[in-house]
## 1
Amino acid sequence: MSGVVYWLDMAGVIVFALSGVMLACRSRMDPIGMLVLAAVTSIGGGTLRDLVLGVKPVFWVTDPTYLWVILATVGVSLMGFHYIHRLSRGFLPIADAFGLALFTVIGAHKALLLGTSGMVAVLMGMMTGVAGGMIRDVLAQRVPMVLREEIYATAAMAGGIVYVALHALEAPLTLAIAVSLSVTLGLRLAAIHWHLALPVFAWVTVPAKTHDEAAAPLSTPQKAKERVRMIRRERKKH
């Protein structure tokens, strides 16, 4: 079964590397930028996980196959650049959802193998799933998906909890992996399709209108611009 987990990990690397390449294309980056985004997306979360768990050296140092898989993914993507460029914008979140589900299971599985508690394993699964995408989005100057309204980290947490619970019940590994993948992927895809989100708690301050703004009637765009200039001049005087 260790072979199944290993190939799932490789599949996650390919999917996340592809999502990094796609974002690099949309951000008009050169091949080096594509490689950097692909690498940080696919191995960034696992690297942070290993550092937190005290695993030395990290997984891709002991097994450089991960790096070769990233290079191969970027190389194939460059050859098929025109096809990737034509993919719809909805494909990136879907590819990211598959990577999130795969890496959540891998992170929780590795944490449990190292003897951590269930709570730590859930957190390591979530970290493995979301950290690489966060770094990718920051480098591309985008708001990370995990910080947006749609359910993202919650899906990873739910999948990690399911995996840890089934592991505690001594369920077969294939069943635990399949159910955890289904929960994470199902929640994330549902959030994308129906725009599901957690409630937002925030105070919104709406600036009060000035007397001139409140009293002024609707007018043409040219008159509106002139009114804005007059208001600014009045404010500067005060």
## 2
Amino acid sequence: MPIPSDAQLREQADALGERLRATRDHLVAAESCTGGWIAKSLTDIAGSSDWFDCGMVVYSYEAKQGLLGVRPQTLEEHGAVSRETAIEMVSGALVHSGASVAVAVTGIAGPGGGSPDKPVGTVWIAWKRRGGYARAQVFHFDGDREAVRRQTVGQALAGIAELLP
């Protein structure tokens, strides 16, 4: 997968904003490995207050539990970088916001922190519409920390677009 440039992410965020405005949806982003980059990409767009509700950067286990309601058992059994955690994050983001659409990301951007079963570049992204079922997908991105994070933002935005009518 090509690493998106700033211009490509801006174009993607702009198009997504137009779609969210058209469908009268509001978005919440729950971010771990991207550290707020999804929210930044979206709020760089003038008028984003029409369709962007809020963003939560939840790096620690405690933040994931306290702000999003991720269960301690989920983190203990599956770890922060897992399908189960991503789904609980995206569901919790909707519960704790006024948004109708949510995205959550959790992953290992590197350069350290990887393991044989979860190498650097492993990222789980989950998407959900209020009242619907969460969808989660694992990605294995290549490159350095910035490359992994850029690719995560691009895929997160693309997945939101797929949720919209």
## 3
Amino acid sequence: MMQLNLPPYPIRVKEVNGRKQILDILRRKYVTLTPEEWVRQHFIHYLIEHKNYPATLLANEVPLQVGEKKVRADSVLYDQHLRPRMIIEYKAPSVPITQKVFDQIFVYNILLHVDYLVVSNGLETYICRMDYDNQKYLFLEDIPNYQNI
């Protein structure tokens, strides 16, 4: 797998029926190792180990329904009252972060109405804080530590 702009961590990978799987610590199971999953697992570990996000308040593959269509938010951070605070959308490192990616996460935010939106392909990461009062969003330089959100 490709080197990312995220800190390394002790990765747990195994092979089942000729396919590699990586441990997802949030779902507590091994999942198929795809380039997007590689980014997700690195990013989740970064949030937990370097930004002090509680693993108990993070969830992967959160089901949502947009009209008739069922979709999944890649990761969601909740507060202590289990209200969504942040949506994180991952792409494979080979996928550029474009307006289409932001459009996807904005659709999810219509349902969840969070404070922060994050998009990452492991090489580039963008975070914005929603300003609902002024109907805009503000890009931040870095992901805030958990205690600062």
